Amino acid sequence: MAYWIFLGAVGYALFFLLRPSVDFNAGNPIHESRATVESRTSELARELGFSTDSLHMLSTRTQHLGYYEILADSLGDSLSRPGELHERDAFLSSWLVTVATSLDELETSLSLSQSDLFERAGHLQLRYDDEGKVRRAATNSVTDNPTFVPGDSLLGVAQKIVSDIFAYDLSEYRLSSVDIRDTSLSDVTPTFDNNSANVSETDVGSNTTFHWQIIEKANAGPERLILEIQPKIREVNGQYGTQIRYGASLISFAATDQYEPEQFARPFAPDSQYYIVLYLTVGLLVVLVFFKGIKHINKGQVEWKRALFVFVTITLAIFLWRILFLIYTHRPFLTDDMFTILFFNFLLFGAVCGLYGALAYIGWEATARENGDEQLHVIDAFWRYRFFFRETGDGLLRGFALGGVLLGGLSLALYLMGLVFYQHDSQFGFTEPSISPKLLTINMSGWVNAWLVALGHIGVVVGFLRKRLPNKKIFYPVAAILLGFLCAGSAALFGTNGTIWHEVILFTGLAPALIYAFDRAGILTVSTGWWIFAVTIFTLPYVGSRSMDIGYVAWVQFFILGFPFLYGLASFRYGNSVSEMGGYIPQYQERIANHLRVEKEIEIARESQFKLMPLRPPSIPGVDVYGFFLPSFEVGGDYFDYVVGRNSRPEAEILTMTIADVSGKAMKAAMHAVFTSGLLLSRLSNDHPASILREVAPTLYHRTDPQTFITCIIAQYDPEMRKLTIANAGHCLPMIKREGRAEFITTPAPKYPLGLFDRVDYQALETNLQPGDFLLFYSDGLPEAVDPEGNRFGYENLAGLLESLDTDQKTCNEIALDIKRRIQKFSDYQLADDTTIICLKV
Questions:
Q1: What per-residue confidence (pLDDT) applies to 592?
Q2: What value, to the nearest 5°, has the Cα angle with vertex 562 and ends 449 and 21?
Q3: Would you tell me how many other CB atoms lie within 10 Å of the CB of residue 481?
Q4: Mean pLDDT of all residues in the chain?
Q5: In angstroms, what is the C-alpha Rg of the chain?
Q6: How many Cβ atoms are within 10 Å of 729's Cβ, its own excluded?
Q7: Which helix (H) or strand (E) covers residue 672, if one does?
Q8: Sign, Cα dihedral of 685, 687, 691, 694
Q9: What predicted TM-score, i.e. pTM, was given to this entire model?
Q10: 696 touches 683 (CB < 8 A)
Q11: Residue 322, pLDDT above cutoff 70
């Protein structure tokens, strides 16, 4: 633990030491809230001659990356670090406010781009620096220009706009040039009419552009001021006639420094290589996560309540964040149809991410349980609402150390590559300053990102590689390179002024720390470390703000970060071990264990049942006998046996055969079959067939439930006398084949199955056999066999089956196996019922 804490502390120190050199916003926190900027815009609009009451505003925080790149190209190695540039008032970030009307119902295209909104419905766009001064202003040539500043001369109007409205001290500037035709509007002859009250404006003359240059470069402020205005006449028709006012409308304004472009618009437009990396990484993640998740779902290795919680939480968090972004930015400009489309689009996107997160959790947990990963027991305890354990504190403290290592590694890598990072918290750019409540959205975004990265990028992908690359010397470099690609393409929390390959190198450098933490600590440490890494970066623009409306975000967020740290210290020092709570066995593992136990018990029952039946037929001169039992399930309700005994003549051997068939199937029927076999076997050697049935009937009646009955046939053959005695308790009629012709043997009544009545006076049939006779005893599984089309084999086909067999030349063993193959082929090896056969040949 001490080693982890030391590395984490070094990482934090390194990050804050190098931050002025690598953080694009270092030394330049946000000083004004969106509400303050929009309130100032309303005041400026009134001074420019119109009201914003019927209009709406879209305010976003922008970062001037294009300007920074121009400075880097122009100054080369002499370019100061971002922190120093901000101290010199370099205009590297701003609030951009667009004043526009709602989009028309006829609009067919839907875009959340601020530049598109201004082109389609905007009237005025203002860009403020961090001191609250207007550095850029523009009106839309397509829509109506609402601005109008009265004055008798264009110079007077220009000075009023720049000095009085935009608050620049023109005494520090000199007018360097004016692109103008006329400076006075007094020669224009006004006209009057008495129409009802309305206002009309008329453009007169050409646009006029004024250029001011700062007198002393030592003075604070932009070096150049450029204002373009359009001369106008405004006619106000009232009750007492028409009043004419002379003035101008604002076209554009720019306050610039050396190397500073007049337009800062630089949309996020990555090159094709970025999209290649993005699509490859997203595709790889989706394939691996879905493959692992579906694989474990098919195996039944799923804690559905946990997976559902992850799915719902991620779905709602992403959906809520996007809806808040939409409400606080574009909602006033959208029609109801547009909002509805975006609403369901955001919900669908959230659900897809939630599904991905749930499958990633399923894949990680099942793999972690197989591998016995660290901190799995802590996560199990969390799901049982138990948190205060020593291992919880250990995981949290290591997570804070990992967060410091990631921040320090980030700053060191950027410093060595000569790059800076900027805020880019979503696909929409830098959005957090425009959304409320910021503390909610920052932490939602941070935790969702931490869950997705920890579960998907690391839990599934790194876990997948760890299992297949047991050699650490191969595993670490391969996993680091792959994780670097995945994070650069689909997990970046920020942007850099480098290429996508710089970001791949950057995250590849951070990957070993994540892999080591996952390998040696676990998922709790990785997710905590990535959350700290994310929210620290998200919070940086608010650190050091002069405004309490903004600065509180940083203070409260660092307090939020401190809570799990203090909790980790307390639980690590005073908590019990999670092992004392007792191990957790998932429901699916219990189901699997129960299933395996049942399978084992069934296998034992199957072996036991087969051992109760004869392994080989008896050897009696002049007699060939063979039987088999074929269950439709693992165990069955049929039973057969043949034994050699002596009856009235002690010197003569007698063959006694029996088949019993219990109603029902599988285990229940098998238990009754075993019980019945015991009753029969104790009497088969010496007793008469009819007396055996009469003696066992009362026991089976009292020891079986009313829904269970057993059919049974007992046949006794005396080879010396060639006499066959048959007693039948509701069983299938035996068949005899004599001289090539097969027929059923009718047995005497009563034929009630065993178990139906307490006492039954069963009778026996005695008949003599002839040399060459073939007898078939069978259970109802033979005639009730069903083919794939649902057709039964039927009793009517038994005679034909028997007559088609070569019973003269083949042994009973060969005949029985022939019957077995035919019935299996007929039923496509899917038996409808247990099938038992005894063949007898004399």
A1: 72
A2: 70
A3: 14
A4: 88
A5: 45
A6: 29
A7: helix 666-684
A8: negative
A9: 0.75
A10: yes
A11: yes
